[in-house]
Amino acid sequence: MKFNKQIILGSLVPSLFILSGCSNEAESINELVGEMNTQSTVVIDELNNVTQLEGEIQTAFSDTLKNDEKLTTLVDKSSPVFETIQNREDGIEEIEANIDTMGEITSKLKEIELSEIDTSVILSYIDATDTVVSTVYEYIEQYRSVLVEERSYFESLTGEEASYQTFSEGVEEINSLHLSLQESYAAIDDQLENFYIEESNLTNTVDELLNEE
């Protein structure tokens, strides 16, 4: 998985310019880009967190099989596997909340009447943001489907007709779904990198404009 790279990317995010005496246009853009940067950082942190939590489910399942031969904790939902699912659901909700906010900030940027800022620079930034937002929304829906499948799988193991085939086929299906998620991770990774490049271009443009005043 590539999201360790995102932690490094965080250190490359350009510092945002806090300048006085600048035009309302530049001030508005600076403020909104700063808000966007904050939200994107939280999204990256939560994406990394959800990814790291995936590693806990195998341990949780192994502990359940070892300590609960009758699998009663799968029936009453007290098995730690359900906690790992819930923790990731919470992470996904946090990602969605911040992506919603990024979309709202983009809408505000689109409403600014430009007279001094190079239109192409801000439009490139908005396009990069829209791409990230759209792809992360797709990831959210995809991940929620995976969590539904995981929960259903663990519940199916307690059924009267559960067999080794139930066990093995379920594992294969879940592994396949997680492979698809990895492709989404890679796409988001690339798009975030481009997003920060466009952010840097925009903040540099604003800075140059303000230095001319």
Please outline the helices and strands.
Blueprint: H1 4-12, H2 24-54, H3 56-67, H4 72-75, H5 80-111, H6 119-156, H7 164-212
Helix pairs in contact: 1-2, 1-7, 2-5, 2-7, 3-5, 5-6, 6-7
Q: How much helix, percentage-wise, in residues? A: over 70%
Flag low-confidence runs: 1-22
Outline, from the CA principal axes?
Answer: elongated
Share of residues in strands: under 5%
Order of helices and strands: HHHHHHH
Cα end-to-end separation: 46 Å
What's the number of structural domains?
1
The CATH class is identified as Mainly Alpha
* CATH superfamily membership: YkyA-like
The assigned structural class equals: mainly alpha
CATH architecture: Up-down Bundle
Average pLDDT score: 84
Explain this structure.
There is one protein chain. By secondary structure, this protein is mainly α. It has one domain: YkyA-like (Four Helix Bundle (Hemerythrin (Met), subunit A)), CATH 1.20.120.570. The protein is 82% helix and 0% strand. It contains seven helices and no strands. α1 packs antiparallel against α2, α2 runs antiparallel to α5 and α6 runs antiparallel to α7. The longest helix has 49 residues. It is elongated, with a radius of gyration of 22 Å. The termini are far apart.
